Each structure stands twice: as C-alpha cells, then as structure tokens.
Amino acid sequence: MNGWTGNLLRINLSTESVKKESFTEEFARTWIGGRGFALKILWDELKPGIDALGPENKLVVALGPIAGIPAPNTGKTVVAAKSPLTGGYGDGNLGTRVTVELRKAGYDGLIIEGQARSPVYLNIINDRVEILPAGEIWGKGTYETMSWLYKKYGKAAGILTIGQGGENKVLYAVIRSMEGRSGGRPGIGAVMGSKNLKAIVVKGTNDIPMADPLGMKKLGAEDLRKVGEIDKKTGWSVQGTTGVLSWCNEVAALPVRNMRKTSHQDAWRIDGERLNNARVATYGCPNCTMRCGITIHDHEGRESELDYENIGMLGSNLEIFDLPQVASLNYLCDDYGLDTISAGAVLGFYADAIDRGSIKGNFQFGDAERAKELLRMTAYREGAGDILAEGTMRMAQKIGQDSMDYAMQVKGLECSAYNCKFIPGMALAFATSPIGAHHKESWVIMFEITQTSRESYGPEKAQKVIELQRIRGGIFEFIVACRFPWIELGWDLQHYADYFNKITGMNWTLADLFKVSDRIYALMKFFWLREFPNWDRTRDYPPKAWFDPSNADKEGPIAGKILEWDKYEKLLDSFYDIRGWDKRGIPTKKTALGLGLAKEAAEVEKYAKLE
C-alpha cells in the first residue's frame, strides 16, 4: 500500500497488551490519515456518553501519508480523543520528531486505550513496544521530563509528554514535544494523564513507504530549498506569527481585558519587533525551513518560545505588556502542559468576573506575579486553581449571574487571540469550528478585513470560511502537514496534491481531497450530535459579548460597532446551505449519502432525525 505503512499499533494499558493491526486500502482512501483516521477510529470505537477521563476513552496519535517525508513542513502529528473540555470530538496537531520516527517504526498511528495501574511511559522501537514505569518523571514538568528521556534515549528520539496539568486532569491540558511544541487544546493532555501515561518515546529504522521514493526525495529537497529562499526573501521568520500582533491592534482585533477592548496603546511593547530584538534562539519543527519558534529570556532568565497566540492571550488579554513577564507565563504553561490560549482566556475571564463582583478572588488585570501563582495552582488543582482548571464554560456555569455572556468560548473551547467584536466572518469561523473556537480551522480574518467589507454578512463570507476549513482543517489535518508555507509564503496548494500523488501513486486532484475534507467535517458534526442529541444551531453561536451594545468600543475604527444577531443568523444559514446542512446545523441525509456516510447517518438517526 504505497503512501501508508498499513499498520496501526493498539496498546491497552489496563491489560498491558500490544497488538499490531492492519487497515484496508479502502479505509486509507476514505479517511487518508491524521484527523480522518483519528475521527473514524473514535467514532467506531467509542460509545456515546462515556467519561472522557475514564478508561473507556481512547487516545489516538495519527499520521498522514505525507507526514514525515522530506518535503516542506511535514513534521506534524495529530492527537485526538473525546474532549473532556467540550464533551465532543477533540484534537490538535503539533510538530514533533514522533512524526518521522513513528512512520519509520512502521505505523500510521497509535490507539491507546484503558488505564495503567500506576504511572507509565511507552518506548516504541519498530516492533518492540515496552510499557515502562514512569515513577521517576511523574510529577515533573515537561522540560525536566524531556531532558530525562533525552538522556536515556538520545535527542533524535520522538517524544510526546504531559506535565502536571495533564496528570491532574486540567481540562485544557495539552501534549508537548520538542521543548516548544504543543497540541491538543481540547484537553487531550488530560486524557493522556487520565490513563496514567506520562510519555511516549518512538524510534524507527525503516523506510517510509512511497510509490516513487527517489522522485519524492528529489522533489522534496528542491521544494524545501525553495520555501527557505522565499522565507528569506519575504523575511516572514523575522517575526513569525507575532508579526500579526501590531496589525490586530491597528484594526481593532486584539484581545484586551478579556476581549472587552480591541486595542491598547502599550501593545507595541509585546509586538513582533520587540520579540525579534529580544531573540536568543530560533526553533522549528522537523522538515521546516521557515522556523517560527522565537525564543527569548523570560523574567526569570529561562528560555521561553513565543508565538502570537500565547502573547495575545497571556499578554494583551490580561493587560500585561511586559514581554519577559509574558514569556514567564508562557514558560509555566509549557512546563505544566497547559494550553496557553485557554489559560489566558481563563485568567482573563476570572479577572473580569472578579471586577464585576460575580465571584470573590485575588486577581486583577495586569498582575503578572499573581497570574504565575494561579497557573501553578491550576496545574495542581489547588485552591482557586481547581475551578480555573475547568475552563471558562464550566466556570461560568458555576458562577452564574450572566457570566456565560462574557465567557469567551464556543462549545466549551476558549477563543483564540482574535477579538471578533465586529468581524462577522471570523466570528462565524470560531463558531463553526468542529472542535470549538479555534483559529486553525479557518483563519478568515485577513481576507475579511483586507479584501472585503467588514460590514458585510453576505454569503461570500460563509463560502470563504468553508473554503478555508476544507484546506486548513481538512487537507492539512489529514495529509498531515503544516499550513504556514501556503498561508504565509504563497506556496501553491497544488504542491500538496503533487506530494500526495507521488507518494501514493494515485492521481487525485484538489477536488478529490476537498471531498475528503467535507466527509470529515460531516462526521465530526455527527460525533457531536451523538454526544448531544438535543443539538441546535445555538451551539454554532459565538460569545454573546460580541453582540452586546454595552461592550462596544467607545473609540477607534469600530467605535459603537458590534455583531448583529439577525444578520449573523442569515450568515449562519448561508454556511449551512453551502455545506448541505439543515437549519439545525446537521448534515442532511442527502449530503451524508453523497459523502459516503450511509452507515454513519443510520447511526445518527437513533439520536435525531435527518432531513
């Protein structure tokens, strides 16, 4: 089977059984890999209503056919499970040496089930799989854990690990790798921790199967060089993702004070220029020639790798405009294994709720030292940290007093660092993201502000959101690769179809790949419906604060402007119509059958009638 190893490795931690399983070519062609494999496995194997932190949940590590091959930015791995934060389908991707090593070991994915009796880690070397005691590293942060494992297995090993946040089941704990890489915002690290699994170590010695290995090697090497040259010419890596911070501030899209404000006069203190000036090192994922991991010394003198999202959410959103202090908060999140986006949103919501008198607490916007202490308390679920560990949706449910209106989340997942108070298309992208409010699915904000009217709620915006979902949340998530060459450097999307065909020996077009994207998005919605049979369109609404007239900016480019409910409803209708979903936001029977989901649609009919 060219392009795939054809194997999955199933590890049951309860019974300590290990089984190598094969999958069919039909399965491979239908779901391709990465998010597609993970979703289908979880759909088939999980019973609806299970405890996401119980032994019945499964942790899936999934790769795609171009993952790990010598081509631009192919060092990505998908981690997935039923989300303890949202209760629906949850996943994330991260750059890691595991991508290359797991494929070389002969697997396209791992299925980890059950629960170990005591803390363990996995050591995988080709067909040899060991379940080893993790007593020496349990309770340690991710930096110390990775250092211990590198000393034992070498720096070339692929490693995934969790910190204390995952061990203590913080609902937005992530999985970490390569010091500065994280993935699994919807609590996939908590699922790993619930299984008493501290780390996964992988080494492989086989060749990655390809239909044309010599041709791919030549093409990949040439394209890696070209992407590197484009990056040097454009200078994108000078600031990396943080270059967008000053732009967000200028166009009133920056998260400030729990997204109460959209800009701040001190934002320049934490922007990409300041970050580049403070740079002490630069890191990237495997097979990357446009490295965006900019590292600076934090307030305590440690190296901390920053990007836009963590500066936006741990910096401006908390009104902390001291870059070394922001780097310290980021370092702690990374070490504890907490998602930086959700952590910043949770702290912002907590400060906002205290300000409004909805809850008593000792935290104010701008207090970096108290924020550090709260992150530690969250990772260990101590004191106030126990409720902070639950995420903003559950916090608001407990606090009451209309606090849900300013809990900046969708489906339980906190919004990324884009304040959509008056950006309807990006608000729609957050609202219809299949894992909750994540920017990675459809970063439509640049198109919306620079290429169309910000005032518009027309169907062209719904169409653009879907187009980007098909590419960003679809193709890049199932082939699996990083989207940055395409987004930031204009690397043509056709290159990825070419890689796919050269590796698999197939002759697919981008349209063929887009159909797989639509199939995956439909099944992700079915997954949610199966968990929440009373599903309705309100679950595809952005936070209420963005519609609140009292929350409108008093000055600046969007003074007095907010999202409008009636217009948003029409925009959401357009989204559903284009996707072939009904007014509830559920794929119709016709759409499901057209995507080859007849069996899955029949299963869904047990929970809700399809139109």
CATH class of the largest domain: Alpha Beta
In percent, how helical is the residue content?
A: 40-55%
Strand segment tally: 17
Physical arrangement of strands within the biggest beta sheet: 2-1-6-3-4-5
Task: Throw out a few tags for this protein.
25 helices, Aldehyde Ferredoxin Oxidoreductase Protein, subunit A, domain 3, Aldehyde Ferredoxin Oxidoreductase,  A, domain 1, about 600 residues, 3 domains, globular, alpha+beta, six-stranded mixed beta sheet, Aldehyde Ferredoxin Oxidoreductase Protein, subunit A, domain 2, single chain
Could you please describe the fold and organization of this structure?
42% of the residues lie in helices and 13% in strands. With 611 residues, the protein is α+β, with helices and mostly antiparallel strands. It folds into three domains: 7-203, Aldehyde ferredoxin oxidoreductase, N-terminal domain (Aldehyde Ferredoxin Oxidoreductase,  A, domain 1), CATH 3.60.9.10; 235-419, Orthogonal Bundle (Aldehyde Ferredoxin Oxidoreductase Protein, subunit A, domain 2), CATH 1.10.569; 421-611, Aldehyde Ferredoxin Oxidoreductase Protein, subunit A, domain 3 (Orthogonal Bundle), CATH 1.10.599. Helix 11 (308-314) packs parallel to helix 13, helix 17 packs across helix 19 (459-478) and helix 19 packs across helix 23. The model has no long low-confidence stretch (mean pLDDT 97).
